[in-house]
Amino acid sequence: MNISRSSTSERLSAQAHFRTLRRDTPFQPRIDSLARTNDWYNWGGFRAPNSLWDEELEYFAIRSQCALFDISPMTKYSIEGPDAEAFCNRLTLRDVSKLKPGRVHYTAWCDDDGFVLDDGTLFRHSATRFRLCCQERHLPWLLDSAIGFDVSVEEETEQVAGLALQGPTSFACLRAAGFGGVERLKPFDLAQFPHENGQVTISRTGFTGDLGYELFIERDLALSLWDRLMEAGALHGIRAIGYAALNRARLEAGLIVANADFVPAESALRADRRRMPDEIGLGFMVDAGKGHFNGRRAILEARAKKKQRHVLVGLEIEGNIPAEHAIVYHRKSQEVGLVSAAMWSPMVKRNIAIASLDCPFGDTVTEDLWVEIYAMRELKYERLMKRAKVVPRPFMKLERRTATPPADF
After folding, report:
1. What are the E-state strand segments in 137-237?
2. CATH homologous superfamily of domain 5-74+159-252?
3. In 35-83, which ranges are continuous DSSP H helix?
4. What are the residues facing 366 on neighbouring strands?
5. Containing H/E element for 282?
């Protein structure tokens, strides 16, 4: 059989394509050089570290030092134009007219039936320019929602690199790196700072419930920003981390994750898996007085008729065995919900969890709740029924998260 050079080349190219299962972020060269566990996962089509060197120690880097986490795979949209504020107000639950330039707020958006499509952060750079960051991709929905508004919506996930710098020495790291004025940032403030021949946007935001910042920059300047932070943070204990450690910290902070604690409406295969804002603890966002927004009618009707079927709660569980994905029972017999995230918290010294329960359990009925845990004991699983009680979220509050100016370690 004769095989031409062109066909061989095409075949090898195809093989190379299938070997490249995930895209790399702008920080990938630095992350790869630090990876010791070879523990990767798929984040929106990108190759992201679940851990880099030690999951336990990476968690403690957040709580006692300064942790650097690559958030470049987070979906990012640029929203710009004369009607940008009106568009965002029509799209999301909160009143965007109250969001001033140089500020960020946590928000969510729904379909017309009032079910949550996603949650995320909305950054207001100016009167007419915003950035929306979230977990899922929503460009078709955003473009359809923009019809009739003088606004442009573009995805900029690939073009904009992002880092989360979290932990008690994160401010000290930024100051040592030469970002003068960062001490003036209050929680949910953002500002521009010079870096080489460009600018980096620094916001006092994060997903850990700790003192922390998020940095966004053009991908061409990403590696030099990483090097600048790592060099400046060497004396402040800076360490790169993976998602497993971040996930522990977000649970202690009582924060929820799409596709973990709730299913985005567009991804749900079954209608009963969708959730309204009140059913996943986001009811505080709903600003019914701002005028119409996607899902408003359905959300208010569900409130008026008390049609909410679920409630998201924090649980404290007896013992020290995490109840990950455990079934929640009432009186040890009736299934009433499911744990979506759980851990033994080193910070609060409690066995904590987030769970979705069927109403009225977790709402008006909070007594006699139990979780079913299967624990491995000498190569055999043992079924344990542990008592659970509903507790407020967040499970812990750190004063340093909101202190302004922050402590300089």
Report:
1. 152-155, 160-166, 190-195, 198-203, 212-218
2. Probable tRNA modification gtpase trme; domain 1 (3.30.1360.120)
3. 55-64
4. none
5. none
- The strand pairing partners of 133, in sequence order, are 76, 121
* Tokens coding 276: 């309204």
Phi/psi of residue 90, nearest 5 degrees: -70, -30
Bridge-based pairing of strands 334-345 and 350-358 is: antiparallel
8 A C-beta contact, residue 149 and residue 201: no
Q: Are 351 and 402 in contact (CB under 8 A)?
A: no
Q: Which residue has the tokens 């204990």?
A: 237
Q: Provide the residue type at 368 as one letter.
A: D
Fold of 309-393: Elongation Factor Tu (Ef-tu); domain 3 (2.40.30)
**Do 5-74+159-252 and 309-393 show the same overall fold?**
no
Q: Please give the structure tokens belonging to residue 256.
A: 């929820």
Distance CA 127, CA 80 (A): 9
**DSSP state letter for 277:** G
Reduced to 3 states, what is the DSSP secondary structure of residue 389? strand
pLDDT in tens, 87-133: 999 999 999 999 999 999 999 999 999 999 999 999 999 999 999 99
Length of the chain: 409
Domain ranges of the chain: 5-74+159-252, 309-393
> What's the pTM?
0.92
What is the token pair recorded at 192? 């521009």
Burial class (CB in 10 A: 0-12, 13-18, 19+), 17: exposed
